Please model this.
Amino acid sequence: MMGELMGIINLSEAEEYLGELNRSRPLAAIPFAGRYRLIDFVLSNMVNSDISNVGVFIQHKYRSLMDHLRSGKEWDLARKRDGLFILPPAYTRTPMQMHRGDVENFYSNLDYIRSSRQKYVVVAGPEMVSNMDYRSALELHKKTEADITILYTKANCSTHDCLRANVLEIEKDGQVTDMKEYHALGGYQNLSMQTFIMEKKILIELINDCIARGDYDFIKHCIIKNINKYRVYGYCHQGYVARISSLRSYYKHSMELLNPQIWRELFLKSGLIYTKVKDEPPAKYMIDSDVANALVASGCYIEGRVENSILFRGVKVHKRAYIKNSIIMQSCEIGAGAVLENVICDKDVFITANKHLKGESNYPLVIKKGQVI
Amino acid sequence: MHKKKCVAMLLAGGQGSRLGVLTQQIAKPAVPFGGKYRIIDFPLSNCYNSGIDTVGVLTQYKPLALNSYIGIGSAWDLDRINGGVYVLPPFVKEQGGEWYKGTADAICQNVNFIDRFKPEYVLILSGDHIYKMDYSLMLEFHQDKEADVTIGVIEVPWDEASRFGIMSSDENYRITQFDEKPAQPKSNHASMGIYIFSWPILRKYLLDDENDTRSSHDFGKDIIPKLLRNQAKLVAYPFEGYWKDVGTVESFWQANMDLLGEKSQLNMYDSNWRIYSANPPRPPHYIAATAKVKSSIISEGCLAFGQVKNSVIFPDVYIGEGAVVKNSVIMAGAHIEDNVVIDKAIIGRKTVIKQGAVVSAAHELDGQQIVVVAADMVIPPHTIIKTSISRSANEEFCGKEEEQL
Model:
């Protein structure tokens, strides 16, 4: 039987919060966890929830993302019917005019949503990294007879970075009565995962309604403004969630992956996380390698010392190099005797021999993609 | 069908009985190798990298794992509209059907398949060797020499030459003599089991051979000697580089060890000649603060808390704290509990070695036997395993474990 749920991945983002990492790619395409890009998590969750029709609404800087997704084969989404649809702004309904927000992109691709055969839709973004099955949220959605179900997670905002997150006010029975941007509240909060389940016809209604009123922001205008007009319920996701909203949170959540419990939960719990394959050989450790508390992807070649760090695919670490508390992205090369501490190297960086680079533990030093130092 | 210049036929039906426990459940070409590969990845990747996009894979012995692994060939980019990979098992015909009786018979039963592509040349490969080779250079050589048959040869040490099929050739590479495992070898050029035939000639010889009741229908024993006797033009193509027959447990283990260290002759990191394989969607592996990893290769999805030295670790392997894994090959999904010691062993897929167990033949490394533990076994805590064990022996172990409980 065909699944009754379709997926929409909404990649529009008003601003870029990850600085240098965000420069040439959208948030969804930012490399994470040694071999993935952020979009892999939400996309794999959809596939693992038996969703076989996924529309990815993209806005700008999407070359790296198109290169990553291609036919969708790696996510088992290269299908005869349904599969993966990459939907850039179609401008057909708003000629000669740039979009102001994501709703206008939804609106210009309304035909795709309309002609999809599934009854329900889950709309999600890439910033909430988790491993979950949307089907249990769909079950609750049906049980509560809600119009809209918002997925959320509980977070301690006194210790976590909740800046710019949306927080929910929820009644005992699960009904959502308010949703707004977090503002210095502290304490435990219900953080929206920016993931919504509803019937497709309600999504179409929301979009048409927003456009008719000249609105353009899906969450602010379509959801928040309508929270009392529709029956909105919350679904609390109990598992691990990493909210990637700043360079600091990116660095912090990356380092959390060095905890085997989090590693197991994020990568294996409810399904596998898929990504573009590179056919790299397994990582090779040489006689002088000294690796402790590290995540190492395939294709790495290690002769030096690595501690509390993440090495992406195809990283070369030469003799006497010392990498500590750092994230080294794909195909970087760290020269002999180089010392890196609290550093994030974007892809294809070459650190020549004996260089010393050091960031702060709460403010990592980011080396631009392709730099030679 | 589009006409193809060259079609490859990969002989993958052999049992590989000398690999013992390793081929108990799967055909030799499907045996895992090198941390993420299977033996057949090498010839298939060589085909793709050499620009050969039509490959027939002849299967016979326990083909399930092999067939499902090959699938439609997408791992090697061989899922093509014109050509691609074809799995060719023996089949039933109007007048009965037969198993493949020999390497030549296997090709002969698939003459129709080859004819569909109207090739000029047919490349015969086997699924037993670990090597990287550009077949297009060999094909050029074949055309240059205007040969009927070109046979890939490699120099082997003189004292080992009597284990191989030995080619003697003149200064123009023309083969003058072929001796299968000669006691007194005249040359040290061993046949690699790689042949390029001009198809019309091969076709004729195959059909003749099929009617010869005295023939064993084997390339090395029948077809090649017959061509030589009939003065056909056979030339030797000298190959330089790493080439290893992995027909025995020792050579299989050695080939895995050859991947380690700085002297490794087989460069797996060359992005211009990648070895392709199915890529399991597994996360990067985790090396804990308590772990110590030296001179090893480790695949994705592993968790290592113990010591790993001179070893090849396949995906999803767990190595517990205080465990020592040395000089060994650990297949996918094996679970090595705390304080286990493994030395010079091959541990099968998904086998669990309970805490404190020791898998090692003897103390001194030289001449030490390799201990092979079959797949899906459970080795009880504090057991000492000194010789290879296969599944039937496992039942005993499981029984024992239940008694203990």
